[in-house]
Amino acid sequence: MPPFISLPRTFFLFLLLYTVGYGQIPKKQFNESDFDLEQYSEFTANKIIPIDLTSQVLVALSFYPQLSTTKIIFRNRDRKTPLSSRPSIWSILKKKENRTYIITISSLSSKKLTPILYSNLPYNTQIGVLGHELAHISDYGTKNNWQLLGLFLKLIRSKNVDKFEYRTDRSCIAHGLGYQLYAWSKYVRQKLQIPEWRGEPDRNYKKRKISQPQRYMNPFTIECYMDSYDLYKNIR
After folding, report:
1. Which residues of 91-129 are buried (b: 16+ CB within 10 A; e: fewer)?
2. Residue 195 has pLDDT above 80, yes or no
3. Most C-beta atoms within 10 A of its C-beta, which of 94, 164, 189, 221?
4. CA 150 from centroid of its chain's CA atoms
5. β pairing state of 71-78 and 83-87
6. Is the model's pLDDT at 85 over the cut of 50?
7. Whole-number Å distance between alpha carbons of 197 and 116
8. Helix (H, G, I), strand (E, B), or coil: what is residue 58?
9. Model confidence at 190, in pLDDT bands (50, 70, 90)?
10. Element of type H or E holding 48
11. Phi–psi pair at 87, nearest 5 degrees
């Protein structure tokens, strides 16, 4: 019998989660009062993070171990889009391992989108939307310069944006932030009073059937995907 068979089951669980890219086991609710900077200090490497975003950013980063050495700048700016992520202009032509990425968090937007600005979101929901942006960066990091250029050209078309954002939500769920993404998806639709915002109304999923197109997943769709991943089983 091979010697590794005798190792504890917890070791294999850790190895499995690390191999597929999960940083930690999913958790239904994160609370700011529970945050311990020392616990998350390893995720600060090559990151520029405004002080008011520290705990949310580091918790979200802990689910993306593949980004542990990636250079990422988090910044607050007045932008119409509540959040966005992209490679920095000066690093687009660099090798993918040498790129710097920028996540911009808007502090001022249109009147319609003001209720869903990052600063107006509950703590757990903030982690979910940051997890979505980090899923973008994780995806960018797998592409060489030509592939990245091809992706940005595709995103000129709205239907390609729908598929792109939908896949990004799925990646966020796969990394373990499904509960936080669910909180964001539900919060946005409640605040904007538009059940089908950037997607189809939840009433279309009463039979638990996921249909396209959706740009950002509706809460019910997120639940369907979480149900399909073993990662979320037995989570309390």
Report:
1. eeeeebeebbbbbbbbeebeeebeebebeebebbbbbbb
2. no
3. 221
4. 22
5. unpaired
6. yes
7. 12
8. helix
9. confident
10. strand 47-48
11. -70, 150
| Sheet with strand 100-108: strands edge to edge | 47-48, 71-78, 100-108, 83-87
Answer yes or no: are the C-beta atoms of 215 and 175 closer than 8 Å: no
Tokens of 219: 């809460």
CA dihedral 105, 107, 110, 115 (to 10 degrees): 90
Q: What is the DSSP string of 95-162?
A: -GGG-EEEEEEEEE--TTTGGGSGGGS-HHHHHHHHHHHHHHHHHHTTS-HHHHHHHHHHTTSHHHHH
Coil/strand/helix, residue 24: coil
Q: What is the pLDDT of residue 214?
A: 67
Is the sign of the CA dihedral 114, 170, 27, 17 positive or negative? negative
212 C-beta neighbours (distance < 10 Å), count: 10
Instruction: Kindly report the pTM of this predicted structure.
Output: 0.83
Angstrom distance (rounded) from CA 41 to CA 36: 9
In this predicted structure, what is the pLDDT of residue 20?
40
Q: Are 174 and 167 contacting, i.e. CB atoms less than 8 angstroms apart?
A: no
Q: Is 223 helix (H, G, I), strand (E, B) or coil?
A: helix
Q: Which of 207, 118, 132 is nearest to 176 (CA)?
A: 132
Question: For residues 181 and 188, what is the distance between their CA atoms, to the nearest angstrom?
Answer: 11
Of 53, 58, 50, give the one whose Cα is nearest residue 23: 58
Short-list 232, 199, 23, CA closest to 127: 23
Q: HSE, CB side, 13 Å, CA atoms: give it for residue 236.
A: 0
